[in-house]
Design brief:
two-stranded antiparallel ribbon, 8 strands, Alpha-Beta Plaits, globular, alpha+beta
């Protein structure tokens, strides 16, 4: 007599997605603002920070009568869906001092933009992926290339190819200081590397 087959429970494994997030700041201690944003993203239960680009000082776009920005890009792996991740990013922005509503070109304490989410394309009232200005901005393309060279899912070109064709003539300066993930223990405000 054969033993009955007892079904084994299937582990609840959520697929992970590779997401590139642009970070920027031009108010107050810009480097500390970026570090605080990285620290907050590192605390998300359903996300892991895989890489953080160098930080670049960049010229403002639009209203040029404001401080220069510090910009970078973060690569995370997450099981969060795009809209859910966007809501987390907006919450982090508000917790770090960005107003809930704001004009397009105003100075900002922190800016978190989802640039790429796997190879997905998405357009809703609140979110467009890939970011619609990704291919037009050196302050996004150069830091993104520090950590990866993915293919743009609409244009079917790598980030390096897009940079070679980019008309943006702004100047980027890599700054010596950087932000990163604290290796031992939970992230803190003092974790600037």
């Amino acid at each position: 007599m054969q033993k009955p087959i007892i079904p084994q429970p299937v582990p609840d494994i959520m697929p992970t997605h590779k997401v590139f997030i642009g970070i920027g700041s031009n108010i107050g201690d810009r480097l500390s603002n970026l570090q605080n944003a990285v620290d907050q993203l590192a605390l998300l239960e359903k996300a892991t920070i895989c890489a953080v680009s160098s930080i670049y000082m960049t010229e403002p776009v639009g209203d040029t009568e404001q401080n220069r920005f510090y910009n970078g890009v973060i690569l995370i792996e997450t099981s969060l869906q795009p809209e859910e991740l966007r809501r987390y990013c907006k919450t982090i922005e508000q917790e770090l001092g960005r107003p809930k509503t704001y004009s397009h070109w105003i100075p900002r304490v922190i800016d978190l933009d989802i640039l790429l989410y796997n190879n997905n394309c998405l357009h809703t009232a609140t979110l467009t992926i890939p970011h619609p200005e990704l291919h037009l901005r050196k302050f996004v393309l150069i830091p993104l290339l520090d950590i990866a060279n993915p293919v743009h899912p609409v244009m079917q070109q790598t980030m390096r190819q897009l940079l070679e064709c980019c008309d943006d003539r702004s100047v980027l300066v890599r700054i010596k200081e950087n932000v990163g993930i604290k290796k031992d223990g939970p992230p803190t405000k003092q974790s600037v590397l």
